[in-house]
């Protein structure tokens, strides 16, 4: 599709917005100077906005903004109410943007069918983001990777002709279907039209193949044109897998349009090596990408905020996601992310910021159910210490727009206190300047394991400033920074924010607890200084007030006079305190609250400030805000509050902490075995006959065999059954053995029966570090057989796990799943195969919720299923046998509606026992537990799916291979965290049996 300039500008609304068409080449010239402040926070305000960029940063309505973004996947939290909880937490902690994959497979049960209802309500998610005041970077693929089944491709796409991720016409026809469906929603939420807050949109994902070939370039050009044709008029970009320069502007056809496409790249450097320089300013950046796109701002589409953990916990030596968070901790964030800022990155997205849960059959075979990722907000939605640096830097980027336009300034020689200089001090120093405001920034990084007290020669200091830079840590210093009506000369503490509240200007500086800090603020004359809280020394010297204080909680210094009428409140906060300081912008001006564990919203009506938020411990509440503010309401309750010497209002009583939450024991279990499919007499006449002779799979069809690949028969998720009938005409025992070849992802498993008698089970080897990322897992299981003449039935159950991803664009998602070949030794009976996988997709819970177990097909996992006739049992269980057994129970919760409880289900047992469990809560498949592999023992049960006030149904489908006794052992509810406050939670629709198909 070819774009005329006219069409594009009409769509983009650019002509109306002061952007002009350049005279040559059809390129757009961008507005050269900022035209006004960007509304803050952004929302769906119904007005048109411009979203552009120059080489420094994004320009929203002409104003510079650094997009400080966190990756969040709506499909990894199947409870729409809780989306608001996550987004409010991020917004409160200083993120101004979220980046969002949309997973094709989650929305499409079949070609031509697209579902955006219920937990898949993208419209609601985008609305919530806009209501929360977050910009959105939308990433709908079509390929997303993301450690999801087939990298986001729908199961049905694995059985279609053509090569995915190329310009193949069949593939493109499906891609267009998907993009049409997703863009129809996205277009309503573009910030350019005021319908929502989408400001950037990504094409494809880490497409590192076919970079120079027509099938790649035409593919990217097709995506570009399609997305524009669908009305997406915000800037587009691609995330290059590393800074290679792939898909930089000008490398493929963008329909004659220029200046509306950015270069982006991903980075997941090892936390053990010093952070890489991307080379934006001409240094470092050994890869071609450092100069690939000089006219677009540094855009890190993904930068490691943690890392994923495969089955068996092989990435983190079995320690799980706690170890992911430990190896990418708060100091890692400061060290790496500040280096990114020093390298000109102005769109900075941390993958993941809330990882969530790969529930149902969503996870790619390489990962288990939890996708916690070691992210700043954990899987149970609890803030972790990793939010501290994000909070501090996010607030800073918001308060100090100077950081959105930086040039490199002259290097400085950093010494160590006491003598050594430069390298000897072990500090890497970046010096940056905003060319317009002359604000200077220094980023000091310590890549060594020893703490350094650096001596930093700054503008305006007589002797180098002593600055603590702890081992493997970093900090940002500012000089010449306006703080309202005062100007910072320098500080050895990191600036976090400033604002004007009422008459006074307030500035917050932060650092590690116990650090000695020195801060100097310009004062034309000697000011009056009052230390309101904590200990601080001060002196007026060389035209500046100098304050020395050791960081410990909150130190408050009130500065009056000194050449400026407005009082100035200097707040020095240690890390823990800094995340109790909440800034919110309201139409009447900013509000700063201090005390509670979370401030979600702040609004001013008349003289009252209305706050909502959370407490965990009892907390003081103090608020600064616009003049005239005299009353405080917290979570709808009016508080008695008093004016303080700090110029704030302080609640007379502490806010109460969260009350204790009591969880019931799980008992009254009922039990039933299944796998009737293994019986010779089972009626499989309704099953599909597996008699195809060709397949679009990348797995070759073995000569002389019918296609047995499950996807070719429309079965894409979970377990799949096969029944092969054959007649033995000759003497008994003609065949000696049968060999079953099968392909699965990691952790695949097979069990076989002959005429109802177990032949045995086979499982893929438990992967280790070197094999876990290997895609397809295939094996052949050989079982000895003996049978008499006459008709026989061979029944096989394959837990096939999920489809491979397709990161290298080689159609690896099309590798077969299920049986591939069956051969007999000693005889060659003709076998007629029938196959049965999952029943029709659950219309509410979606296509990835259930597989093809008998119990799943009969709705045993659903609430309301009549299990009254089942046998009562107690845990622990230790029964031996090959096959499938189900356990069901109900439990009631009565959690205070004002309490947000994060509840999990914990399973533990003797790790020698070979069995696995699928966990169904109210019919929702909350994940898979593999007792002898792990490492996951606790499964998050998100509120909404979990009725925190009411009745719940739990069903466990236990698959055991018969080699050991099988549990469950202990099964209990776990309180993972709780807070008073939270968001209102609407129960997630959980239809029972009558609705199942
Ligand atoms: C990058 C992908 O873009 C993303 O989808 C996710 O898979 C992430 O990695 C890892 O969690 S791919 C890159 C690390 C090669």
TrEMBL record:
Do you know which InterPro entries this protein is assigned to?
Answer: Betagal_dom2, Betagal_dom2_sf, BetaGal_dom3, BetaGal_dom3_sf, BetaGal_jelly_roll_dom, Galactose-bd-like_sf, GH, Gly_Hdrlase_35_cat
Q: Which family does it belong to?
A: Belongs to the glycosyl hydrolase 35 family.
Stretch forming the signal peptide: 1-29
- Per the record, what are the reactions this protein catalyses? Hydrolysis of terminal non-reducing beta-D-galactose residues in beta-D-galactosides
Q: Could you confirm whether the keyword Signal appears in this record?
A: yes
Q: What are the UniProt keywords, alphabetically?
A: Glycoprotein, Glycosidase, Hydrolase, Signal
Stretches assigned to the Beta-galactosidase domain: 405-581
Output the Gene3D superfamilies linked to this UniProt entry: Beta-galactosidase, domain 2, Beta-galactosidase, domain 3, Galactose-binding domain-like, Glycosidases
Which EC number(s) does UniProt give?
3.2.1.23
Record the organism.
Answer: Streptomyces mirabilis
Q: Give GO MF terms, alphabetically.
A: beta-galactosidase activity
Q: Which Pfam families match?
A: BetaGal_ABD2, BetaGal_dom2, BetaGal_dom3, Glyco_hydro_35
Name the record gives this protein? beta-galactosidase
Q: What is the lineage of its organism?
A: Bacteria, Bacillati, Actinomycetota, Actinomycetes, Kitasatosporales
């Amino acid at each position: 599709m070819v774009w005329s300039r006219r069409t594009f500008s009409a769509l983009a609304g650019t002509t109306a917005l002061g952007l002009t068409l350049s005279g040559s080449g059809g390129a757009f010239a961008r507005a050269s100077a900022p035209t006004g402040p960007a509304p803050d926070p952004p929302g769906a305000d119904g007005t048109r906005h411009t979203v552009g960029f120059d080489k420094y940063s994004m320009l929203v309505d002409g104003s510079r903004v650094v997009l400080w973004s966190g990756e969040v996947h709506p499909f990894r939290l199947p409870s729409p109410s809780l989306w608001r909880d996550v987004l409010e937490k991020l917004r409160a902690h200083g993120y101004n943007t979220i980046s969002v994959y949309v997973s094709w497979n989650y929305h499409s049960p079949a070609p031509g069918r697209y579902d955006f209802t219920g937990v898949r309500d993208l419209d609601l998610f985008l609305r919530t983001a806009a209501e929360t005041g977050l910009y959105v970077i939308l990433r709908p693929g079509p390929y997303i990777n993301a450690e999801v089944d087939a990298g986001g491709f729908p199961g049905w796409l694995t059985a279609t002709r053509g090569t995915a991720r190329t310009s193949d016409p069949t593939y493109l026809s499906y891609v267009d279907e998907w993009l049409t469906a997703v863009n129809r929603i996205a277009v309503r939420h573009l910030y350019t039209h005021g319908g929502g807050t989408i400001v950037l949109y990504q094409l494809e994902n880490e497409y590192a193949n076919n970079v120079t070939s027509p099938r790649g370039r035409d593919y990217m050009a097709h995506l570009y044109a399609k997305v524009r044709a669908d009305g997406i008029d915000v800037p587009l970009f691609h995330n290059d897998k590393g800074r290679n320069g792939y898909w930089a502007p000008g490398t493929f056809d963008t329909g004659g349009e220029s200046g509306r496409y950015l270069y982006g790249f991903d980075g997941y450097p090892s936390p053990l090596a010093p952070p890489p320089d991307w080379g934006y300013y001409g240094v470092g950046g050994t890869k071609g990408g450092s100069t690939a796109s000089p006219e677009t701002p540094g855009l890190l589409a993904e930068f490691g905020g943690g890392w994923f953990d495969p089955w068996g916990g092989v990435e983190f030596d079995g320690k799980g996601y706690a170890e992911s968070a430990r190896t990418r901790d708060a100091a890692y964030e400061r060290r790496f992310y500040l280096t990114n800022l020093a390298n000109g990155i102005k769109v900075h997205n941390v993958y993941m910021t809330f990882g969530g849960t790969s529930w149902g059959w969503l996870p790619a075979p390489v990962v288990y159910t939890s996708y916690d990722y070691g992210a700043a907000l954990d899987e149970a939605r609890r803030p972790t210490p990793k939010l501290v640096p994000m909070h501090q830097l996010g607030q800073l980027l918001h308060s100090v727009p100077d950081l959105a336009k930086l040039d490199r300034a002259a290097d400085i020689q950093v010494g160590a206190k006491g003598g050594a200089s430069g390298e000897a001090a072990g500090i890497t120093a970046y010096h940056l300047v905003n060319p317009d405001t002359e604000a200077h920034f220094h980023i000091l990084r310590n890549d060594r394991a020893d703490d350094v007290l650096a001596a930093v020669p700054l503008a305006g200091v007589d002797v180098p400033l002593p600055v603590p830079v702890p081992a493997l840590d970093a900090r940002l210093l500012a000089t010449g920074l306006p703080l309202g009506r005062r100007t910072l000369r320098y500080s050895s503490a990191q600036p976090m924010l400033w604002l004007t509240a009422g008459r006074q200007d307030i500035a917050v500086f932060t650092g590690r607890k116990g650090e000695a800090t020195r801060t100097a603020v310009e004062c034309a004359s000697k000011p009056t200084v009052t230390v309101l809280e904590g200990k601080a020394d001060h002196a007026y010297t060389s035209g500046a007030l100098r304050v020395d204080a050791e960081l410990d909680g909150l130190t408050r210094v009130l500065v009056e006079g000194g050449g400026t009428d407005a009082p100035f409140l200097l707040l020095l906060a240690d890390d823990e305190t800094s995340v109790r300081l909440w800034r919110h912008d309201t139409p009447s001006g900013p509000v700063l609250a201090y005390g509670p564990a979370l401030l979600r919203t702040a609004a001013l009506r008349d003289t009252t400030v209305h706050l909502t938020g959370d407490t965990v411990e009892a907390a003081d509440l103090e608020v600064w805000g616009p003049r005239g503010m005299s009353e405080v309401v917290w979570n709808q309750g009016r508080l008695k509050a008093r004016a303080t010497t700090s110029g704030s209002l302080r609640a007379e009583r502490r806010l109460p902490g969260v009350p204790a939450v009591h969880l019931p024991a799980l008992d009254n279990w009922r039990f039933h075995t299944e796998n009737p499919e293994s019986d010779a007499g089972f009626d499989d006449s309704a099953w599909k006959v597996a008699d195809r002779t060709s397949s679009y799979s990348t797995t070759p069809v073995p000569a002389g065999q019918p296609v047995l690949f499950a996807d070719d028969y429309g079965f894409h998720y979970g377990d799949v059954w096969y029944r092969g009938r054959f007649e033995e005409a000759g003497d008994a025992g003609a065949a000696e053995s049968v060999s079953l070849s099968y392909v699965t992802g990691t952790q695949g498993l097979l069990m076989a029966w002959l005429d109802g008698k177990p032949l045995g089970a086979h499982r893929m080897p438990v992967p280790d570090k070197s094999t876990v990322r290997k895609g397809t897992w295939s094996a052949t299981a050989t079982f000895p057989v003996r049978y008499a003449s006459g008709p026989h039935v061979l029944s096989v159950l394959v837990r096939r796990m999920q489809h491979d991803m397709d990161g290298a664009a080689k159609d690896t998602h099309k590798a077969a799943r299920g049986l591939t070949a069956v051969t007999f030794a000693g005889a060659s009976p003709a076998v007629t195969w029938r196959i049965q996988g999952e029943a029709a997709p659950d219309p509410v819970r979606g296509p990835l919720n259930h597989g093809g177990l008998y119990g799943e097909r009969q709705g045993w996992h659903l609430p309301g299923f009549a299990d009254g006739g089942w046998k009562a049992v107690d845990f622990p269980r230790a029964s031996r046998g090959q096959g499938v057994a189900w356990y069901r129970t109900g439990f009631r919760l009565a959690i205070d509606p004002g309490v947000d409880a994060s509840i999990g289900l914990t399973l533990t047992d003797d790790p020698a026992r070979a069995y696995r469990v699928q966990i169904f809560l109210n019919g929702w498949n909350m994940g898979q537990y593999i007792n002898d592999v792990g490492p996951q023992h606790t499964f998050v049960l998100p509120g909404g799916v979990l009725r925190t006030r009411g009745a719940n149904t739990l069903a466990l489908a236990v698959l055991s291979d018969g080699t050991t006794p099988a549990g469950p052992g202990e099964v209990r509810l776990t309180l993972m965290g709780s807070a008073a406050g939270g968001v209102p939670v609407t129960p997630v629709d959980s239809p029972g049996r009558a609705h199942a198909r």
